User: What shape does this take?
Amino acid sequence: MADKTYIDNGYTFTVSDNGTITVEGKVPTEGVSCKGRVTPDGMQTGDHRGHVIAAKEGGPNKGYNMTAQNGNLNQGQYKTVENTEVALAKQGYDVNISKTAFVSNQEGGRPDAYMISDTFISPDGKTQNINFSFQNESKAEQEAQNQILENEQNPDFDRGHRQ
Assistant: This one.
């Protein structure tokens, strides 16, 4: 099967066969209201119905924009990024975003991670590129995973201090 593409509110959504969603577009200065309720595949205990593109960014309440997203991530780090994007758009910045809700080949279609690539162009023409990546876990779970990786990559790592 081929990827499916949707264009909505100035965004281009591409959904792969395994459920990975990639979205590109420019954040408007006004969002949209969310009507109706879409329940994405792969919901687990503690998950929210997470928009890849938030309604406040013009993201539609449609299946191709909804994912099973860890509630702590949805209301924490992901929301902080969304709020920053919206605030900058309202300050006159061009906010061009590319977001991916990555789904591996596991069953259920729940994203494993979210990748965000933002380009902010200030009213005076200065450009800044910022990239984020979040596992679809709580902040505490992500920090625990990072600690395990740090310990594995640095065998001399001892109690938070490198020797």
The longest strand covers residues 94-102. The beta strands are 4-8, 11-15, 21-26, 47-51, 66-70, 94-102, 113-121, 127-135. DSSP finds three helices and eight strands in the chain. The chain has a mean pLDDT of 88.
